[in-house]
User: What shape does this take?
Amino acid sequence: MGIITGRTRGGDEWIPQFVSCLDPKKCIGCGRCYKVCPRNVLDLVERSEQLLAEADDDADDDDEMMVMTIVNAGDCIGCGACGRVCPKDCYTYEAAGG
Assistant: This one.
């Protein structure tokens, strides 16, 4: 399977970049990306669920922070809206296929 390509309205070739990773250490749980995602790719979870394998010395056990996570990566359409609204640059993208 080759790389997925599309065309802009003007006819130029475009290679969509799909969300591949979201860094929970950077995420502040603001929800901006969740609000702009048209495909329900994201959801809020407690930070401890996302970082179970790693010790987080900065976290207060009594005040659990919510962070975003990717729950339906296969539904991503490659629009990149989540990354454009993210104030902490949490997202990584890659082309599909290849």
Notes: The longest helix spans residues 32-36. The chain has a mean pLDDT of 87. Helices lie at 32-36, 47-50, 81-85. Residues 36 and 81 are 6 Å apart (CA to CA).
